[in-house]
Every structure is written in C-alpha cells, then in structure tokens.
Amino acid sequence: MQRRAFLGGTALAAIATSATAHHGWNWAEGEQMELTGTIRQVTIAPPHPTLQVETPNDGVWTVELGNPSLTRRSGFVEGVANPGDRVVALGNRSRNRGERRMKAVRITVGDRRFDIYPERIGGG
To answer: What is the mean pLDDT of residues 83-96?
Structure first.
C-alpha cells in the first residue's frame, strides 16, 4: 500500500510539473515581438483563450492569451474580436522556431487595446 501511494504521488508530481511548464513562460523567448495579421479563429475557453492569426508572410500563428479570468479582466471577452478583424499581438514567441506560437502580453484589435499581462509589457 505504501508503494502504491508513493507511485501515485510521483505521478501527480509529474503531471503538476508538466502543467506548470506548459502554462509558465519557460517555453517562450525572453525578447518580445509584435505580430500583425487577421484573426481567423477566436477561442475563449480553458486552459487559456487563443487566437488563430493569419499573417501576410508567415502563415497562421497561435496566439495564447492568459487564463480565462485574467483575459476577461483585461476586457478581452467574447465578441470583442471576431474572424476577419485586424489584430496586433505583442508577446513572446515559442523558443521552438519551427512552431508559430506566442504568448501575448497585449492584444490590439482596431483601436481597442487589451493589456493581458501589463507587468510584462516591454520585458521578458
């Protein structure tokens, strides 16, 4: 029984570490970039809302926002952005250069700006 409890605890620790790594910033570069394009899809759902953004030269990028409550606090809620809207995303791209993915700290749709991670704007 003790062995089973130990194995269960080890498995939970591994899952927690994996989730933290995915939701943290260690997968992203420290330097921020700006991505401009057209929204193709908006998903407002856990674990974090995302945008699919088509750029003129690089194809479609996945732009991850904060967790749903953090994203909502920024004012970015369902209906403020729609497919076809122009968007500028400021954030940190994936360290894996083969992946078109970034974690946004700020999203601008038209003239509306949504600071999702205001404390990270301009930094890593």
So the answer is: 96
